[in-house]
Amino acid sequence: MVGLAIQDLSVRYGRTEIISGISADIPSGGGLTAVIGPNAAGKSSFFKRIAGLAKGNGKVISVDGKQGGKGIAYMPQDSTCNAVLSVYESVLMAAKQGSGWQVEDRELAEIDRLLTSLKIAPWAFKNLGELSGGQRQLVAIAQALIRKPEILLMDEPTSALDLYRQIEVLTFMAGLAKTNGMLVMIALHDLNHALRYCEHTLVIADGRLVASGRSEDVITSDLLRDIYRVEARIERCSQDRPLVIVDSALN
To answer: Is the model's pLDDT at 65 over the cut of 90?
Structure first.
């Protein structure tokens, strides 16, 4: 099972430092890790730096000693869309990225299983340009997973999905992380989703890591007041699950 050690990570664009001195140990195999924080906190830059797509100081080391972007797949908020390709073709191209173009029956069977698991097989031969934003988001998840990464970084993968699909995708990814021992980090804005589906949570604000640990320990009324500027309570529902209840925004 792959874990991740992040040591003094920074990202700078020109003279502006976006991420500064983030260090954290990310567990794997126990479920999802949420990355939360206000808009423009630096979550996307943090993911890009881990994936080797942004430059900066610090180190990203997996427990097997690999550094940089090896074995890491990054799913950005806005996936590029080649409207000429069908869904199936786009996933096949993702599977063959960095390898030869000879296609084996085994690879086609893997694509079939993945599209079925994500319940997008009916769209297999639709062009990407025909799909809604939410549908393209699900295809982007398939493109990331078909590469069989050890570490998967998902930047707001549910932002364009309806509530049913959000629950479906988060349940699927949580199961995949536990079953396959994959390290999956997901940037989320819905804090109740972080509490429900993510075992571990990192909080980034103003480009710095302000909290890290078990989701229930990290997402507190004090954190919501200090970081999100809202007055809120964490209460337990009838199934004894924690819920964020926001009372008001602070001036």
So the answer is: no
For residues 22-39, average pLDDT? 91
CATH number, domain 1-68+151-251: 3.40.50.300
- pTM, two decimals, is 0.90
How far is it, in rounded angstroms, from Cα 186 to Cα 151? 11
**Amino acid present at 180:** N
C-alpha span between 132 and 59 (Å, rounded)? 38
Cβ(46)–Cβ(11) below 8 Å: yes
DSSP the chain: ---EEEEEEEEEETTEEEEEEEEEEE--SSSEEEEE-STTSSHHHHHHHHTTSS--SSEEEETTS-BTTTTEEEE-SS----TTSBHHHHHHHHHTTTS-S---HHHHHHHHHHHHHTT-GGGTTSBGGGS-HHHHHHHHHHHHHTT--SEEEEESTTTTS-HHHHHHHHHHHHHHHHHH--EEEEE-S-HHHHHHHEEEEEEEETTEEEEEEEHHHHS-HHHHHHHS-EEEEEEE-TTS-EEEEEEEE--
- Domains in the chain: boundaries: 1-68+151-251, 72-148
Residue in 212, 155, 151 with CA at minimum distance from that of residue 181:
151
CA angle 56, 61, 62 (to 5 degrees): 145
- Of the pLDDT bands very low, low, confident and very high (cuts 50, 70, 90), residue 104 is confident
- List pLDDT tens digits, range 141-157: 999 999 999 899 999 99
Q: Tell me the Cα Rg of the chain.
A: 19
